[in-house]
Design brief:
- With 127 residues, the chain is an alpha/beta fold.
- It has one domain: Response regulator (Rossmann fold, 3-Layer(aba) Sandwich), CATH 3.40.50.2300.
- Helix content is 43%, strand content 19%.
- The longest helix is centred in the first third of the chain and has 13 residues.
- The chain is globular, with a radius of gyration of 13 Å.
- The protein starts with 5 loop residues before the first strand and ends with a helix.
- The relative contact order is 0.18.
Length: 127
Amino acid sequence: MADSKKVLIAEDSSVIQNLTKKILEQQGCAISSVKNGEQVLSALEKENFDIILLDINMPVMDGMECARQVRALPDPVKANIPLVAITGNAKNYTMEEFQAVGINEYLPKPLNFDQLVEVVKKLTNKA
């Protein structure tokens, strides 16, 4: 990859966050990580990302509300960042519900890391 993709991981589990970070760093991605949706919005105020991996069940602000707020941002670049929901409770939501708040893809937990890499590559290759 010519330029490394900037990935923001929003995940309250340190184990999943660290594993995801290691896998994506091996793919040449630059990783930032936060523990809740409010921190996602704070991180977006400071910098741009190519993709956000969003746990649905997080404290303070969950992934669904965070996705709604990202899509409502005044900056069109930031408002259109690809969002990937990561959840162990996918049965609680339909793909239509994810799409209604602006989520592009979802990955079930436990994470399939090959699938994770594939989705990140697919959504960040704008060429």
